[in-house]
Amino acid sequence: MGLTGLFLITFLIVHCGLNAMIFFNDSGETFNHWGHLMGTNLIIRTMEIGLFLFLILHIVQGLILWKQNSAARPSKYIVNKPQENSKWYSRSMGLLGTLILVFLVLHLYHFWTPSRFGGMGNIRPLEEATLGSYDNQEVHNLYKEMLFVFQNNLLVVIIYILGVISLFWHLMHGFQSAFQTFGLNHKKYTPLIKAVGVGYSVIICLLFALMPVAIYLNWLS
Amino acid sequence: MEHYNMNLTLKVWRQRNNQATGSLETYLVKDISSEMSFLEMFDVLNEQLIVAGDDPIAFDHDCREGICGQCSMHINGRAHGPWTKNTTCQLHMRAFQDGDTIVVEPWRSKAFPVIKDLVVDRSAFDRVIQAGGYISVNTGNAVDANSLPIDKKDADDAFMAAACIGCGACVAACVNSSAMLFVSAKVSQLALLPQGEPERESRVLNMVAQMDKESFGNCSNTYACEAECPKGISVANIARMNREYLKAGLSTES
Question: What is the complex's ipTM, to 2 decimals?
Fold first, then answer.
């Protein structure tokens, strides 16, 4: 769980960093350039397969844990106050993960499917949706896709924000938890790991949430 | 602290035996002194029941001074009640007010089946210890303590891990019924000392294997165990056991 989690955490840094390029406010030039590089780089494409495998593994591990852990307490407490001894999100990782997965299906349908399979998602016509130009070279215009998905679509923006909120609480527990699983608990370093975990969760999720909001409110030209 | 008496409503889990379905039964107790311990309050209740010709409530207790780990009661939704770093026998009635309703349940875990009422079978812990929670030494005269120098920090950490009384509050409090805090304390107290060195690898592998066999849940690092542990055993022990397990798993041949 920790290993696959840390891999996904690393992926989120790259994903968030590249997507934040939209904030250069250059009609997505920089963003599309990097998107194109990522989409055509053999190493990145290989890692994409690994990413899906790790994501599936993370889900499978979660399901196994959920099954074993619910079997470990067949008769529940009539009165229980777990809020007195632990954080709600540390006990709700399965629920948060499920919410993220639901969001992820919609998210992949919005961006991954059209960019990989050229509009197979039928969001809008191929030539409009996935093709743009950069340096006289045809690239997927993912920026335009973002505008299309988020502009004038309050419901989608709200779903994305809810997805990011679920991700935030999932990371708030998951980041530090992964280190504990690997046996890294140290008087000096654990407070640091916990602080970095909180900082990571806040920054990544704020940036992600800002993207649909900025587009919806037309903050970007 | 000012002394006061109180009348209480108790809702206690009654279960005739392991197979029977249990339920919460309501009892009233009167004039309970704020200076009584929680178990003394139960003694008063049981005397009432005996006088009335009813079956007294079965509960585990032994030392009544917070060191034997027997008094396993889940009180008002918390293992060992509302006070932290505390056992049920050391919980005193001044933690409650006149007119309070107190719900008392047994530890609930598949690995700790209820024997009767509030008494659960914790022999799963014994089997984990039998799997490796010991050291093998030759008998004979005790060697001079100074012949085996041990770093003060290691000695302190080992001692703190050895403070575990095996009460099972960690399992009772854990959302997953995981026994990781108990097992890790028992692994740590020996892994930190030179006496534990010869069996270091087989110990952690065997104890973890036995733990899994006993159908405890998995650790998801909620740290509820540390918060509810009457002896304040740190989750740093769980991390140590994870390290030990990882190292042993990589280096052993089987």
Answer: 0.92
